[in-house]
Amino acid sequence: MTELHIRECRHEEAEAVLALWRHAETTASVTDTIAHVQNAIAVDHAHVLVAEVGSGLVGSVIGTFDGWRGNIYRLAVHPSYRRLGLARALVAEVAEHLAQQGVKRITALVEKDHPWATGFWDDVDYERDIRMIRYVRSLSSGTGQ
User: Fold this and answer.
1) C-beta neighbour count of 12 within 10 angstroms
2) Where along the chain do its domains lie?
3) Could you read off the pLDDT of 47-103 as tens digits, one per residue?
4) What's the rounded Cα separation, in Å, for the pair 101 and 114?
5) Helix/strand/coil for 72
6) Rounded to whole angstroms, how far apart are CA atoms 39 and 80?
7) Using an 8 Å Cβ cutoff, are 72 and 126 in contact?
8) Cα 140 to chain center, whole Å?
9) From CA 57, how far away is CA 5, in angstroms rounded?
10) What are phi and psi of 144, to 5 degrees?
11) Which of 17, 31, 75, 144 has the lowest tally of Cβ within 10 angstroms?
């Protein structure tokens, strides 16, 4: 693998991030639009990070701080680049960004029906919280959660 570079996502890369999510088999959401990704990139309390190998985006993660706790969303690695440490590097980088904002606790939303995703989180220093269940309601038309 050529050199990995993790950096903030650029506004014009929103379409490439959406393509990465499709390749990584993430579940589609009503916010999977160029406008929503660009909005996340523009928000001060959010960190949309991408992993780049060569000239291609091969990973992404979104970290946010809502004033209460840090949250990690959309950790995705292209299937061809899994099991190489990219997800760990992305999580470490976004956690560092969140820590610099004063975050003391981080939660991660993980798709339970994706064994590669739950397996990753089971292997890193995050604990599965079986006390919680997530409820969602989409406020706009479209597919997803």
Assistant:
1) 10
2) 4-123
3) 999 999 987 899 999 999 999 999 999 999 999 999 999 999 999 999 999 999 999
4) 30
5) strand
6) 28
7) no
8) 22
9) 10
10) 105, -165
11) 144
Q: Report d(CA 7, CA 62) in Å as an integer.
A: 12
89 closest CA partner among 10, 15, 3, 17: 3
In angstroms, rounded to a whole number, what is the distance separating the alpha carbons of residues 62 and 71? 8
Measure the CA–CA gap between 16 and 20, rounded to whole angstroms. Answer: 6
Angle at 24 between CA 38 and CA 30, to 5 degrees: 45
* CATH architecture designation of domain 4-123: 3-Layer(aba) Sandwich (3.40)
Query: For the whole model, what pTM was predicted?
Result: 0.88
| Angstrom distance (rounded) from CA 74 to CA 29 | 11
Instruction: Tell me the per-residue pLDDT of 94-144, one tens digit each, with 9 for 90 and over.
Output: 999 999 999 999 999 888 888 888 889 989 989 888 888 888 887 865 555
Looking at this protein, which amino acid is placed at residue 105? R
